[in-house]
Design a protein that fits this description.
By secondary structure, the protein is an alpha+beta fold. 28% of the residues lie in helices and 28% in strands. Helix 2 packs antiparallel against helix 6 and helix 2 packs across helix 13. The structure holds one RNA strand.
RNA sequence: CGGGACGUAGCGCAGUUUGGUAGCGCACUUCGCUUGGGACGAAGGGGCCGCAGGUUCAAAUCCUGUCGUCCCGACCA
């Protein structure tokens, strides 16, 4: 490709409506343009990168036994009603009607679609296992799209679905995908970490998120500093923190005027926050009240709480009336004196506390000398809090570090959730009808691209890994109006291409500085500069974007040297 | 959906307080000159000031509404 034929409109200034460096550089480097909120046009450079990432994904999916297919984006509501998700999915699903009044969704994911496809095709265990995938645009009506490709409403996703005859088979498929994901993220040059994850509403089975390490990320992962346990912040398992033994004091009511928050309580009684127990009251969609108690300096983990609440997908803060109806006093709550039958959860650590302070279910009053094991009745004791930096790993006890990251992929086992709901069955060895045992595996392609840029850039622009760079090498004649230089550059460009190197010839009649700045901004891994030294002395100058190193080669053997440099990248 | 900010040329911005009919830098076109890190000179083209109402002799500027964008909070690839 010649730069004079390439539409790569770079911007001299940073676009003002972008916040993240990846977003800014993709706009500035001419990789993409915004179309509307959460929707983007990919320009030639951006699309080339996307295709390179996709092809790495395809390669690894195929190697792992996957077969590529293509399903419609538009999905009839009937399928979603079979699985129950037409109602459950909520506002995140884009919906529309055709001229006959039939309802459809713009696919946010394809479990229903693939299950419906496979149930009509696969009859026998002999056809299993089966792994089918596609790379396609998905639609999710995010409450707040932001950060460019990081969270958009239309985005490219690779989604693979595995079908097995039993759980053991499913686990093998899962392992294959887990390995393939590692290969993919390594090949695209990401620093990443697979972490245990919560399955959320899907329930059962297990799941891992692949998280690219980046301060720009929106997720947190907890990594053990000693062993290899790592989990998403929601998933990270925690054990009780056992305090030093103390003689148990009597339960005693003390006045705490206006101390309706933990901060005020700590000031009011002049006690350490670790001695307090705080309450959070939730309600489910069905208006069931759920009271949760954790140590004052801890946060409630709603994902964990949800595992103890049946038939609820999300929690909201409870109304004051509901709290009062259960015998609670907002701002001064405690499990002591709550109406029997109210769902009351106490965190493991809070339950072990000695002589703590908690509310007394009376205005402006707290209890001191609270010993939960002795004083709390009819409560569920469980791990329901959020991990904190320094918390102990459940495996080895060493402290956790919390790291920010970008979730670029997730693998999880589905079991028979969809196959049972949608009656997708096959005949096993004994001629018996059985539901498929499924798994699903997603990769955000655009998000992967953004994550790579977040990890690989400097003040001058992007530094693409060779595997996904829009071009591997840019050949820059310093003065394209100088015919000797242009000829020399063209010769090098042709020779590179003969070696199957993806090269760009920057034949624009721009000054050298402009072309150098663009090359750095766009981030080609290698730049070959063709100037007077090349024409007069036969010296080929190669600059490595990543290190800034400049290497000089002789015209006679530069090609093999360049191949070596590329090899080392 | 709640809280905050902003909509003026392709991009980045000034002008709005104190109404008088639109400007700067970059980019773009032509010519000249220049060519190893975003040159220089000259001459040009391009905007119903987001949109709709209102106030006024007169509105980018004041008022009302509306749409859009960005950032902060409840979720996910």
């Amino acid at each position: 490709m010649r730069a004079t034929n390439l539409y790569a409109p770079t911007l001299r200034e940073m676009p003002s409506d972008a916040e993240l460096i990846s977003h800014k550089l993709m706009l500035r480097g001419g990789f993409m343009r915004k179309s509307a909120n959460g929707m983007y046009n990919f320009l030639p450079l951006g699309w080339k990168v996307i295709k390179k990432i996709e092809n790495i994904i395809r390669d690894e999916m195929d190697k792992a036994g996957g077969q590529e297919i293509m399903m419609p984006i538009l999905q009839p509501s009937e399928l979603w009603e079979e699985s129950g998700r037409w109602a459950a999915y909520g506002e995140e699903m884009m919906r529309l009607k055709d001229r006959h009044g039939h309802s459809y969704s713009l696919g946010p994911t394809h479990e229903e679609m693939i299950t419906a496809l496979v149930r009509n095709e696969v009859r026998s265990y002999k056809q299993l296992p089966l792994m089918l995938y596609q790379i396609q645009d998905k639609f999710r009506d995010e409450r707040r799209p932001r950060f460019g490709l990081m969270r958009s409403r239309e985005f490219i996703m690779k989604d693979l679905y595995s079908f097995d005859k039993d759980e053991a088979g499913m686990n093998i498929s899962y392992e294959k995908m887990y390995k393939a994901y590692g290969n993919i993220f390594t090949r695209v040059g990401l620093k990443y970490r697979p972490v245990e994850a919560d399955n959320g509403a899907i329930g059962g089975g297990h799941s891992h998120e692949f998280t690219a390490i980046s301060d720009a990320g929106e997720s947190f992962i907890a990594c053990c500093t000693k062993c290899d346990y790592a989990a998403s912040d929601e998933k990270a398992e925690l054990k009780a923190i056992i305090p030093e033994n103390e003689t148990e004091e009597e339960l005693k009511k003390v006045p705490t005027p206006n101390a309706h928050t933990i901060d005020l309580l700590v000031k009011c009684l002049n006690i350490p926050i670790e001695k307090t127990i705080k309450a959070v009251a939730y309600q489910t969609e069905q208006d069931e009240l759920v009271l949760v108690f954790v140590r004052g300096d801890h946060d409630v983990n709603e994902a964990k709480v949800l595992h103890f609440v049946e038939n609820a997908r999300e929690l909201r803060m409870a109304d004051e009336d509901a709290i009062k109806a259960a015998g609670g006093c907002p701002g001064f709550m405690s499990p002591i004196g709550i109406k029997k039958g109210t769902k009351t959860l106490v965190d493991l650590t809070a339950y072990e506390m000695k002589n703590a302070v908690s509310g007394a279910n009376e205005v402006d009053t707290h209890y001191t000398g609270v010993n939960p094991k002795r004083d709390f009745k009819n409560v569920i004791v469980a791990d329901i809090r959020m991990v904190k930096e320094g918390d102990a790993c459940p495996r080895c006890g060493a402290p956790f570090t919390l790291t920010r990251g970008i979730e670029v992929g997730q693998v999880f086992t589905l079991g028979t959730k969809y196959s049972e709901a949608m009656k997708a069955t096959f005949l096993d060895e004994n001629g018996k009808d059985k539901p498929f045992v499924m798994g699903c595996y997603g990769i955000g392609v655009g998000r992967t691209m953004a994550a790579i840029i977040e990890q690989k850039h400097d003040e001058n622009g992007i530094i693409w890994p060779l595997s996904v760079a829009p071009f591997e090498v840019v050949v820059v004649p310093v003065n394209a109006k100088n015919e000797d230089q242009l000829k020399a550059a063209e010769k090098i460009y042709d020779e590179l291409r003969e070696k199957n190197i993806d090269a760009l010839l920057d034949d624009r009649a721009e000054r050298a500085g402009v072309k150098f700045k663009d090359a750095d901004l766009i981030g080609y891994p290698l730049r070959i500069t063709v100037g007077p030294k090349t024409v007069d002395e036969g010296i080929v100058e190669v600059k490595i974007r990543k290190t800034g190193d400049i290497k000089l080669f002789n015209m006679d053997n530069y090609l093999s040297e360049v191949l070596k440099v590329l090899e080392d990248l």
